[in-house]
Amino acid sequence: MKLATMRDGSRDGQLVVVSRDLTQAHYASGVANSLQQVLEDWNFLAPELQGLYAELNAGRARHAFALDTAQCLSPLPRTHGWFAGCPYPSHLERCAREKAPTWRQEPGGAFLAPTATWACAGVTDLDFSAGLAVITGDVPRGCAPEQAVERVRLLTLALTLMQAQAQADGGRSCASAFAPVAVTPDELGEAWHAAKAHLTVQVQLNGRKFGLCDAGADMAQDFGACVARNAQAQGMAAGSIVGALPVSHADAARGFCSLRERRCVEAAQDGEATTPWLQAGDELRVQARSSAGDTPLFGAIHLQLS
């Protein structure tokens, strides 16, 4: 099923069920008001939402309305656990970082909406990272990857903004946003295989193609391993998010999901980096599609810098 959170003036928004083609939605208030509520009682509430999802797709939901993703918040507008790392060796090697992915806990008090403007005045050397993220149920401390992947409830698209030096030093991002829609793994069909999502992450910068990268092809650690790694010491509570970003390909011809990686490739090939860092007036658009169809699975992240 597909879920989203609509603006309603509150911090956590209002949970809605979204049709498979992302055109229709239905408030889930008869089941739960927020996605966090559902994640904390998944086994009981998810089947009820699944029933509403079936009714919506069959055209039988009485109070369905046209979905406007510009009115969506991130599926989880806030969380106490947002962990990000890059399990892509090609990115780590090109950027002269460690061979093994490093993980950091990001600020989770309030995420940007999927369609948003972010003021970057005074922020220099601003980079972005785009990739996929999973939203979990409760994950016990020290569980194995095979157990951890069973706690993955939803997937969505993630985008972070970070100053380049902070990224190099393992620091935290300036801001994070997620796609308007989160989906259960079964919605991916064959694209969800061996705990990896073989989806094409599409990045546009100022209307031009920047990256067209398969998120599963060169992923060295699957999402089960990523979740288990972050739950190793303390476990993770329901509603935690684990992001694998930026997506990276061994084949640089597919483009990039971060400015830093592209600049590193330019410096290696041409002696200097020519692609500028993000600045006021820039516009980012990120989507993800499966090979089976053209409909974006999660909707788009559309971020403008001012």
Overview of the molecule:
With 306 residues, the protein is of the alpha+beta class. It folds into two domains: 2-72, no CATH class; 77-305, Alpha-Beta Complex (Fumarylacetoacetate hydrolase, domain 2). 19% of the residues lie in helices and 30% in strands. The protein has seven helices and 19 strands. Strands 1, 2, 3, 4, 5 and 12 form a six-stranded antiparallel sheet that branches. Strands 7-6-17-9-10-11 form a six-stranded mixed sheet. It has a five-stranded mixed sheet with strand order 8-19-18-15-16, with no helix packed on it. The two termini are 35 Å apart. The model has no long low-confidence stretch (mean pLDDT 94).
What is the SS-derived class? alpha+beta
- Characterize the main sheet: 6 strands, antiparallel
Number of strands: 19
The percent range for strand residues is 25-35%
Helices and strands, in N-to-C order? EEEHHEEEHEEEHEHEEEEEEHEHEE
Gap between N and C termini:
35 Å
| Assigned CATH architecture of the largest domain | Alpha-Beta Complex
Number of helices: 7
* Total domain units: 2
**What does the overall shape look like?**
globular
CATH superfamily of the largest domain: Fumarylacetoacetase-like, C-terminal domain
Measured on Cα atoms, how large is the radius of gyration?
18 Å
**In which range does the helix fraction lie?**
10-25%
Low-confidence stretches: none
